[in-house]
Specification:
Tetrahydropterin Synthase, Chain A; 10 strands; 287 residues; 3-stranded antiparallel beta sheet; 47% helix
Length: 287
């Protein structure tokens, strides 16, 4: 089922014609009863019938709104003209909003790629682009969008880990753009049959489930501490190597292997320690 454009007629002339018919039918009825001329009653009945048909064919469409027309269950076409319009009075007319809409899904509890339970929610921005598909392909296109959006969000969340464990790995927390693009692709695949186009889809809430949140926080803190310590040690070793190289190069002092080892130990303690060191000044011989 694809949308088929249907033309319509301006409604103002038909509205004026309906007013004229109403006045004419009223005048004929009054004349028929006042002059006691029953022969005028069929004329008044015809005028009243024409009036009903004219009024039944009138409908109004606002900007970014379309009207889906059907005749006795058969799709006729879609009207996109705004304002007061007129079509066949026997057409059934269903109005569909083409405006951009958005909603935030509920917080879903799902298992991410590593199996840890997480809470996730997303904001979906969408609009109807095919009124015929929205009306005839699904029963309730708005409910269809909400349910399929939650299903797509669940499917996407199970495809990635919460945190990045390897270099180049895509995770929910660190790669928002890639995850949003994947979610949008999932939504487009599911909602295209309902004539809906997804304009944007982004995660609005992401957290570990309450039952494991404390343990995962401790793991994140441990990973952060390890990463910081690794960088500190790497920098300290580089500084010690530079210090020994400069001392040997400038001939400031000659150290045997034992003294070098002691100096390296002292420098690493100073550079890697969490607290400030208290130096001891040796006024005598180093030996």
């Amino acid at each position: 089922m694809k949308e088929n454009a249907k033309s319509s007629l301006p409604g103002i002339p038909f509205l004026l014609g309906a007013l004229v018919l109403a006045l004419g039918a009223a005048a004929v009825f009054v004349l028929a009863f006042a002059a006691r001329q029953p022969v005028l009653l069929p004329v008044a009945a015809v005028l009243a019938t024409l009036l009903v048909l004219l009024i039944a064919g009138l409908y109004k469409l606002e900007p970014n709104q379309s009207g889906v027309l059907s005749l006795f269950g058969r799709y006729v076409g879609t009207v996109n003209d705004n304002g007061l319009r007129w079509n066949n009075p026997f057409f059934s007319k269903k109005k569909i909003s083409l405006r951009v809409r958005n909603f935030e899904s509920g917080r879903l509890k799902v298992n991410e790629l590593d199996g840890s339970p997480i809470e996730i929610a997303a904001v979906i921005v969408w609009r109807v682009v095919d009124s015929a598909e929205a009306v005839f392909n699904v029963d309730d296109y708005e409910g269809f969008v909400h349910i399929q959006s939650e299903a797509a969000l669940r499917a996407m969340a199970t495809s990635y880990p919460y945190d990045q464990h390897e270099d180049g790995q895509i995770s929910l927390r660190s790669h928002a753009s890639e995850v949003s693009l994947h979610l949008k692709e999932q939504l487009d695949e599911r909602l295209s049959t309902a004539g809906v186009d997804v304009l944007d889809a982004r995660i609005s809430h992401l957290a570990y489930a309450p039952e494991i949140a404390h343990a995962m926080l401790q793991r994140q803190q441990a990973n952060a501490v390890i990463a910081a310590r690794t960088r500190i040690v790497a920098g300290a070793v580089g500084m010690v190597e530079m210090a020994l190289s400069e001392l040997q190069k400038n001939g400031v002092v000659q150290l045997d292997e034992e003294r070098k080892a002691q100096m390296v130990s002292n420098l690493l303690v100073v550079l890697c320690g969490e607290r400030g060191t208290q130096p001891i000044v040796n006024a005598g011989s180093i030996y």
